[in-house]
Amino acid sequence: MRQRGFTLIELLVAVAIVAILATVAVASYQDHIRRSARAEAKAVLMEAAGFMERYYTTNGRYTTVTGAAPPLIGLTQSPKEGTARYNIRFAAITAQSYTLQAVPTGAQTGDECGTFTLTHTGAKGVSADVDGDGTAGDAHDIQMCWNR
Fold first, then answer.
1. Residue 74's pLDDT band (cuts 50, 70, 90)
2. 4/139 Cα distance (integer angstroms)
3. What confidence tens digit (pLDDT) does each residue in 26-54 have?
4. Of the N and C termini of the chain, which has fewer Cβ atoms inside 10 Å?
5. Distances in Å between the alpha carbon of 43 and those of 14, 16, 116?
6. What are phi and psi of 91, to 5 degrees?
């Protein structure tokens, strides 16, 4: 009489297949989390730029009377609450111009897009060489990071 069941080899093959599928699923999930953190950081940068434009409309300058940057209340990190994945700050500011940055931090450090920038003219930038052509922050890198 023949016994029924799985052999050790069949069981190991099944476990290996499940492990491979789990690895792919976890990597895909982590990539999705990084992309959504990028999208949120870009939204906070745009919101901070909107704040700066309203400030300029009211005061005629981007800086305070003393030349300091106005406080970006509630717009200093992304996400706005909880653990920061990006720190929002000024890279440069004068009375007539500014450049905002979203600098990856924590779990987002090492993200392929690097630091996002946004200027008073609406010019967007990134600090990384996403397409691997040897030129960091070129038009293709910006398009790849800001448009997805």
1. confident
2. 63
3. 888 888 998 999 999 999 999 999 999 99
4. N
5. 44, 41, 11
6. -85, -35
State the Cα–Cα distance between residues 126 and 132, nearest whole angstrom.
14
Write the single-letter amino acid at 22. A
Give pLDDT tens digits for 9-23.
988 999 999 999 998
Closest CA to 141 of 118, 119, 125: 125
pTM over 0.90: no
Spatial separation of the C-alpha atoms in residues 25 and 133, rounded to whole Å: 29
- Is 8-146 a domain of CATH 3.90.550? no
Domain boundaries, the chain: 8-146
Tell me the residue type at 59.
Answer: N
Continuous H helices in the chain: 8-59, 139-146
- The Cα–Cα gap between 82 and 121 comes to 30
